[in-house]
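@channel anyone free to eyeball this complex?
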Amino acid sequence: MRINAPYNMNSAIILTVATLSVLGIVSAVVLYFIAQKFKVIEDPRIDAIVEVLPAANCGGCGYAGCRNFAEAIVKNESLENMYCPVGGNDVLKRIGPIIGQVAVEKDPMIAVLRCNGSYAHAPLKSAYDGISSCFFMHSLFSGENGCPYGCLGGGDCVEACTFDAMYMDKETGLPVIVQDKCVACGACVKACPRNIIELRPKGKKDRRIFVSCVNKEKGAVGKKNCEVVCIGCGKCVKECKFDAITMENNLAYIHADKCTLCRKCVAVCPTGSIHELNFPERKKPLAETETAEVSNL
Amino acid sequence: MANLLTISGSPHVHGDQSIRKIMWGVVAALVPALLVSFWYFGIGAFIITAVAVLSCMVTEYLVQKYILKGQPSLSDGSAVITGLLLAMNVPSNLPWWMMVIGSVVTIAVAKMSFGGLGKNPFNPALIGRVFLLISFPVAMTSWPLPIQNRWVLTDVVTGPTSLGVIKEGLDKGESLGSLISKVPSYAEMLIGNMGGSLGEVSALAILLGGLYMIFRRIITWHIPVSYILTVFLFTGILYLVDPAKFIDPLFHLLAGGLMLGAVFMATDMVTSPMSKNGMLVFGLGCGILTVLIRVWGAYPEGVSFAILIMNAFVPLINKGFKPSKFGKEVKHG
Amino acid sequence: MLLKTFTRGGVHPEENKRSSGSPIRRVAIPKTVTVPLAQHIGAPADPLVAKGDKVKAGQLIARGQSFISANVHAPVSGTVTKIDDFPDSSGYRKKAIQIETEGDEWIETIDRDSAVDLQIKLTKEEILARIQEMGIVGMGGATFPTHVKMMVPQGKKAEFLVINGVECEPYLTSDHRLMLERGEELMTGTRILMMALGVDKAYIGIENNKADAIEHLTGLSKKFAGITVVPLKVKYPQGGEKQLIKAILNREVPSGKLPIETGCVVQNVGTAVAVYEAVQKNKPLIERVVTVTGKSVKDPCNLLVRIGTPVSLLLEEAGGIPDDTRKVINGGPMMGKALGMVEVPVVKGMSGITVMPGKEANRPKVHNCIRCARCTFACPMGLAPYLIAQMAEAHLEESAEAERVMDCIECGSCSFVCPSGRPLLDNIRVAKSKVGQLIRSRAK
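replying in thread with the prediction:
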């Protein structure tokens, strides 16, 4: 295109503006048509649900991110077995109307450490030197305190937590779960190679009782390594009037759905293996056992 | 047995290699070049080297302690090496405060901001040098000539380097034949009796250092040999094509920072490839770029830029040139 | 003369063969032996005895039930006191049979005459059956059931037998002494294995630091047809199966496959001697040579011990546990397992106990990776340890699989050579384990 005009400042500016404007308009039109042609038709409900979700993308629901969770809900047209641990019941209630379902309320859950093998309770029998990985330590040896079921203190759980709800207590050598931040996403449960962490209901007034041990060895053997091990004596099972405690493989287990938080089992446990969390101080201190550690975080 | 037994994964013994040994080995290899630079450039050289090393060490200490809030680790010797190499890259009459700024940029920006030792993608000393070159172009291109009285810190006589003489002369249109008479002879360039930065003058001293490092297995021969050979061949081809326009390859080898670059800068472990074939390709790339910049580029010296550009390609080279794995094909011998 | 060796990688740890001059001697039978039921790769054996039973030395007390398993025999005569869980080298408790020793009575079928019997009277099938019956497993430390290893799968052909007399681990000398003191038994055992495999050529690989053994066996080999002694350059890990095959036959075992792909099977010298005793003397695997050594050990020695003897007894025999001991290792320093306590029993795969005093046992301080690539140059399998370790730390299992982490033989050369003291093998093991889980879950 020949420009039959004297080349001066004004014509240069006009030419530049004209060229760029034309380019811009042409690009806009082309992009518009392309966007229309390759448009992805999506159920608008998915976006609506994503708006409601907390956008943590933590995988705690079992799906690959919040959008995936929303897509699954819309695909199944149901909220059954779908729970967002970060958003909790609030979020479920708000999702309900979007797909025309009523959300079933679930008990809030929290991660619970079922081991109390601290340095004080389970003294070291060997010294570990190497990477701080519970996964590695578990495959290498039974543990510095000798208990093959107990916490290794390597911190895989702390590393897995994306909600800053865990830290390693240097005094005890055990991880600590911060109640206010834990959303029960389950990352720490998956990370622990010994399945010491369990998701349990938070409980009425945040109170919960659980057996803080996963050792399946016979009592005498377990006691060699740790003084607060569950020895499988069965006193708690006998004491519980609500049939909430069962014994299997020398290990007692308290079923949270049946437990009424009466605390009688805690009192009779000879090793102090059963823990009560967030209860007020007892009027009469527990007798011959070491007081079960009560953490009020 | 009172103590607890220690449990760890195997192996339970360790070889005698350590970062410290490697670093001090490189320092030892630099000693010939250092001595030559003190000889030809006098006390100025010593001062600028000391300033560089001290500034690098202080910067690293301060950054590690107060910004990263970690444990200072000066004893591994890497700050000392960086300081020495940075000093080798500058003229001996550089004002000391410029050197301090350069050291701070080298350590804090080019090394620590990426995460410290082992995490930097670019050679820190070269970053420092290029930074100084671009920020203080006049000071960084006034190259002292070998001085008569080495104990006096007087104003030194400066002039362009041999490469500079050739480039500027060719640009002005002078003939190569007349230019050659203006630069030192090959013998002088080999020993170091010429103008230039502290480290680039004596090809012989650098070579000695390089051989020492190869003997001690601190570096392998791949990068220096492929770099120098590429430059030699490339410039050789050019020289054969037109001897009036392109100076001969031996000049390219002995003048400028090629020896220093090929032996000490390109072989920096952190910023060079991790397989033998990758190293050869790295040296090849450095060589080609060096010649391109020297002959057709704006600067008379291209080594720093060539190495920095190739540093950027190292991750790609590492991906493309992995060592051949055992049992890849069934071989029957 | 240029010695044969493997071409990729390798390191040179200090040899420290301080016990190589100490002849094999027997250790007194302990009062109690604890015989684990899982001393081999594969399923643990099922006990055939009960508490209170009286047993004789050499009697079958547990049978291997699945395809990859091995029999376990009583190493002493006495009464079974417990069949219960006892801690093994890892500290985990595993099922074992504890026997209270009474005298030293052997079952009648075992020929206790020590004269060497050179005549092989059994057929190939009988040999394999005898090896299985006698509970022979790989004595180099891997403890793979020998009768399974000797079975050539359908479609593959065996051309050679390779006997591993390399003993590349520092400190360990049990194989060295076996080659010197039981050479004829070794050669006969080799011939038996050759018959079992159906080959007529065998190579015995020996590292050049055992010149006396090379000389002795080379002399003997003139009397035994088809056996050639091959001296090898001293380089770790020359004793690795794949490296040994590469050095002797110049063939590389393909990734993920077994040595039979290259036409050979490798067996340790200790296994060959045990096979001799099984076939010629009807003797099951109930005792083995264990080297007790270390810089601080008063009397570095090679002890012939009954399986199930506590390690503490061996240490006493070697002059007592030194005061400054920090590590007691089951095996050698490059691939051995560190023990948390010395009250663990000797098992079929325990070739030595290495004691380390404080200074030697300390791991170096860990620095950042300086990308020097020494680990990559040292890896005998051509892997990039720095990369795999990085991927393990970043939980990138699929990338680690692509980098062929499953080819890693865990020899430890990478960690050994790293100037930054990085625990490369620890991380690589995590990656290997996780990738293994991934592969198994895919197969489901």
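from a first look: The interface with chain A takes residues 4-9 of chain B (CB under 8 Å).
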